[in-house]
Specification:
30% strand, 9 strands, alpha+beta, 4-stranded antiparallel beta sheet, 30% helix, minor pseudopilin epsh fold, elongated, 164 residues
Amino acid sequence: MIGPRSSGLGLRASVFGLRASAGFTLLEMAIVLAIMAVSAILVAPALARMGEGKPPAVGDDVVKLLSDARKIAIQRNETVTLRLDPASGRYRADTVGVGGSGELGEGAMALGAQETLVTDQARLVFVFHPTGSAFADSVVVRGAGSTALVYVDPWSGVAHAYAR
């Protein structure tokens, strides 16, 4: 019979010829340390790069939209005209090519919380040709604490944002 102070483990261990242990063995500790070392090796490079990612700059959303329109013009061999309302951030893209013309898409710009488009024109027009060249307006994007001028190079059609 088991007494009030003894545990069932002690009796069972003595029956099988094992002794009861109250801690971890050296092998168990070595395995845990090896797992922790492997985990540290896998995580260390990510921790070293933490904070190096470039935060989105003012005007990056506009440059991305213009770059996408240029890429579509080259891929489809069509002229893409992008009209952008600076007040509301809404845009519409149309195509003209050998097969005819039509609407490519429309939507609203996903500008940052404090970004605004500043221009003296009611509508901005960007025309991208299949050769990569472009005819485009320029726009100033004002954000939290910084301002950027977004323009399209007429020869290459590549959009740039220059912080001012």
